[in-house]
Write a structure and sequence with these properties.
By secondary structure, this protein is an alpha+beta fold. 36% of the residues lie in helices and 23% in strands.
Amino acid sequence: MSAEPRDHEVVELLQDLIRNRCVNDGSDSSGQEAASAERIAGLLEGAGADFQSYEPLPGRVSIVSRIEGSDPGAASLCYLAHTDVVPVNESAWDQDPFGGELVDGEVWGRGAVDMLNLTSSMSIAFARLVESGFKPKGTLVLAAVADEEALGTHGASYLSCNEADVVGTDYLVTEFGGLPLVTPGGKLLPVPVAEKGSCWCRLRVSGEPSHASMPLRTDNALVSAAHVVSRLASFSQRPEIGDTWRAFVEAAGFDEATQRALVDESSIDDLLAVLPDIGLARQAHACTHTTVAPTIAHGGSKINIIPDTVEIDVDIRTLPGWTEQDVRQLIAEAVGDLMAKVEIVEMHDDPPTASPVDTPLWSALEKITRRAHPDGKMIPFLMTGATDARFFRRLGTVAYGFGAFSDRIPFGQFAAMFHGHNERIDVESLALSAEAFEQLARDFLS
């Protein structure tokens, strides 16, 4: 399968962005999004659009372009995309993760799912609008930013803090929503309207150094850390059933017993422990629990020395209403008596955010999704990860995750590719999203 002529431009852009290898490992010098910013800037320049670039650190470049509205009182809209990607284990892929190859109608590569597919579609849609002479009542902004895959420090956070007059809008769409999910109740199109908070913690476990040839009754920080990790990983946090999750369960059309258990705080954990659909079980757990995931451990200096300190990084995702103090209490409760050996040396708390659903943008998106999926129902959803939308929600912007996707890649398979192996996106979805973003601007801003 090859791309149609009109679709080829979005395929080419995605391939170029993948090949630029803007890998963000969290360090200030990684990412180097300048290459992809330059590619998007060239696209905008060729369409006749003005743009501005922002570079808070060398190579960490974001691009912003605006189509000014004629009515200062009209609603404004931002297409928020990012150009960085996460690291990859290249040996585990079936195709070169930075080759951007088009194979059987699908573009392969790191970021094809997260979120270079939408970055490409948004950019192409914006360029098409400029080329067409689009004159909206409300202003349209395209922001292709750096550093989303770390903390957004050098991208969306920087822009929202220092250039709010340039990027701030009434409404915003970003990754990712509108992916068809087939359920017993029919085809659903989940659109994230809220996201959990991120509380990244570093714990330091202490012990006493001694010679490893005499381990009896030593205070080995590594052994203590292993117990701490085990307690954190197995800690059972009380479920909390929110309105967004309840609405999703009701729309999904599960059998009566499953539906009842999925919204019952007293029985949901028992169901999730045995639910055959592991993808649904993980999603349901994340949407109804503040989660704790130990992810990195550092400690020890030499094989024959009992270590006296070990550091553990823990990824905690908080439900709406949770505070930093709640997280500290959770850690203490999970670790128990070993807390005497544990110090919280770092904590980065990024609280949950949410947007209302009863808005003109929600209505406009429903109209757009009906064109691609007449049999689908758009429903609000809680994003269990973090996106750059959070920075703009704190400015008062209504922000949703949105895209238009074909039925080719099932929801579970698509979701599994986020930060996983063999990321790929089909050409039809790229075309649908580009058309959707172009039409959304015409419907919503005219």
